[in-house]
Write a structure and sequence with these properties.
The protein is of the alpha/beta class and 252 residues long. It is 40% helix and 17% strand. The strands form two sheets. It has a six-stranded parallel β-sheet with strand order 3-2-1-7-8-9, sandwiched between helices. Strands 5-4-6 form a three-stranded antiparallel β-sheet, covered by helices on one side. α5 links the parallel β2 and β3. It is elongated. The structure holds nicotinamide-adenine-dinucleotide.
Length: 252
């Protein structure tokens, strides 16, 4: 099929499904200037992530964690939603899409206007005390760390402060995970967008949806392990693919 025919097929499924769900990974935000993890030039080509247990146990690991977070803070703060985020928000507004299950922590779906957003890995838009759960705006704390090199502590209880994101080795919030699984099982169309579909639950949610009868569409530049199970795989840039589908949805 040609690219246009692929877009038309997705537009048709979207209009027919009644209950589509989008699942997004770091790839949807690269066109907003936030690097993904696994592509060349991505975060992992520069530094190794700090494991949650190490963060809890070691002052040195906490310093490295804060160094990495402060390094990416500028990219995250400057980023604006792109055409891909915009299309998903419009489909939700039009009642074609329930909403978005995302692995991303950048808040760009909400900025684009998406209302139903399940953040599996939390958000980088807040810093939370691991003891009393008081939340802080990241801006001033990042500034403080960059100026002093000292890892900040909670004003209220002195507890450890960490971005409200899920680190490697840290459990995902069970209620968010349960709702993501339910939405995946109940949808008629599952759009997996910009994820290598390697880590859990990214690897299993599309499978769950497909096994329950949903059509599975994968939009990703590189091949994924689930391509063989998908009803359709689209390889272009996410912004242009979703914009192309959106145009056909709007034309009817
Ligand atoms: P990943 O890095 O493993 O995979 C991203 C995929 O997107 C790649 O396979 C790549 O081919 C594809 N891609 C990148 N840009 C694309 C584009 N413009 N068009 C089409 N395809 C494109 O990402 P993942 O599966 O989401 O796993 C990484 C983890 O890292 C996530 O759990 C997430 O929490 C975290 N993360 C989040 C952000 C963010 O919030 N923006 C950024 C980096 C990492």
């Amino acid at each position: 099929m040609s690219e246009q025919q692929d877009w038309r097929q997705v537009a048709q499924w979207l209009c027919e499904a009644g209950s589509a769900v989008a699942f997004t990974g770091a790839g949807i935000s690269t066109e907003s200037g936030i690097p993904d993890f696994r592509s060349p030039g991505g975060v992992w080509s520069k530094s190794q992530p700090v494991m949650y247990d190490d963060f809890l146990r070691s002052a040195e690991a906490r310093r490295e964690y804060w160094r990495q977070k402060c390094e990416s803070h500028a990219d995250f703060s400057a980023a604006r939603p792109n055409a891909g985020h915009g299309a998903l928000a419009r489909w939700e507004e039009a009642g074609l899409l329930w909403g978005v299950i995302t692995q991303n922590i950048d808040g760009l779906h909400q900025d684009a206007g998406s209302r139903n957003v399940l953040e599996l890995h939390g958000t980088s838009r807040a810093i939370e005390c691991l003891e009393c759960h008081r939340r802080y705006d990241p801006g001033p704390l990042v500034k403080e760390f960059l100026a002093t090199g000292a890892v900040p502590a909670c004003d209220a209880c002195g507890g450890l402060l960490k971005h409200a994101t899920i680190s490697f080795g840290q459990a995902l919030p069970p209620e968010v995970l349960e709702e993501a699984a339910r939405r995946s099982r109940e949808c008629g169309l599952f759009l997996a967008i910009g994820s290598s579909l390697v880590v859990e639950p990214a690897a299993s949610l599309p499978r769950l949806a497909h096994a329950a009868g949903a059509k599975l569409v994968i939009v990703n530049r590189d091949p994924t392990g689930l391509d063989g199970q998908a009803d359709l795989v689209l390889r272009g840039s996410i912004g242009s693919v979703l914009e192309g589908v959106d145009r056909l949805v709007t034309e009817g």
